[in-house]
Amino acid sequence: MTAVAGFAAVDVGAFAYAGGWLRPDTLTPAHFADRFEKVYGRHDGFRRNHAKGLSATGTFASTGAGAALCRAAVFQPGTIPLVGRFSLGGGLPDQPDKPDTVRGLGLLFQAKGQQWRTAMINLPVFTDSTPQGFYDRLLASKPVPSTGKPDPQRMAAFLDRHPETVAAMKLIKQAPPAAGFADSAFHGLNAFWFTNSAGARVPVRWSVVPQQRPQGTPHPEAPPSGKDYLFDDLIRAVAQGPLTWRLLLTVGEPGDPTDDATKPWPPSRRSVDAGAITISAVQTEQGGNARDINFDPLVLPDGIAASDDPLLTARSAVYARSFTRRAEEPKSPSEVQVSEVLK
């Protein structure tokens, strides 16, 4: 955990105000944070989205193959430390685990003074192509107290205005979630530009693919039970031994969209195995670990640059606003307690 001290959360996203989407007459980071609070309620000290989580530490062992695409130090051959966070989508820090809730994995790599932060989810594409679309869908998805589900008329009206979301949801339904965190693949979804030491630049998307069990293979155990069963299973799995994912870099070709996370690239695109991500320990969220890290997607090392995807600037700015709010609030204990699971 000594390495964690150097991974202090940075409010880098505040610089994203230069982005065109943050005009005074449209959306602002505060509006986004307020909407999360309107939908999920206010929970002091927790993230406005992906509030329920578990910290992790481990290593990244680079194969060196990624260096052909990117000059960032993280892709040079060797092993470096990383800090991670597993999470569930939504702003409820004590929500019960459900198999269809979006799962997240945030990672922070540090190599030779450079940081790379990424926040991934277990969906093959994102549901929205613009910040405004995400903002509107958030409200349309708010559960109605009488049913616990979104208002069907409000959601239907939203989908009528957003055919890109309809198309993305069809793709998502074709990729059912894995049984747990350990056998989930996580995807960066947004495109970035990679530049190598020779100055060659290519668009890249990345994913981390589990090595524990083939995706979709059912657990042999009894059906899941318990409010925190996804996190409990992860805690027990790490206690039995390290978990590993491969970091795959997918290289785009001319014509592949770099500005729309709802559209997948063709499966025939070249993929580079950049190395192994190993999670060797998990920790209850508290001061000094991933609880206080802002997984801002625009904290990038030399050699990686943002694409023209409008979601990137928005995510950076909203993450920063969420971080600023929770940093000033009293902290409550995490729902997920490692010691309780391992008794």
From TrEMBL:
One of its GO terms (molecular function) is catalase activity. GO terms for cellular component: cytoplasm. The keyword Transmembrane helix does not apply. It is an enzyme of class 1 (oxidoreductase). Residues 324-343 are annotated as: Disordered. Its cofactor is heme. One of its GO terms (biological process) is response to hydrogen peroxide. Gene3D superfamilies: 1.20.1280.120, Catalase core domain. SMART domains: Catalase (SM01060). Its EC number is 1.11.1.-. Heme binds at residue 319. Keywords: Heme, Iron, Metal-binding, Oxidoreductase, Peroxidase. The active site is at residue 50. It comes from the Bacteria. Residues 2-340 form the Catalase core domain. Pfam families: Catalase. InterPro entries: Catalase (IPR018028), Catalase_core (IPR011614), Catalase_sf (IPR020835), Catalase_SrpA-type_pred (IPR024168). Belongs to the catalase family. PANTHER family: CATALASE. Has an organic peroxide-dependent peroxidase activity. This is Catalase-related peroxidase. It comes from Mycobacterium saskatchewanense. The lineage of its organism: Bacteria, Bacillati, Actinomycetota, Actinomycetes, Mycobacteriales.
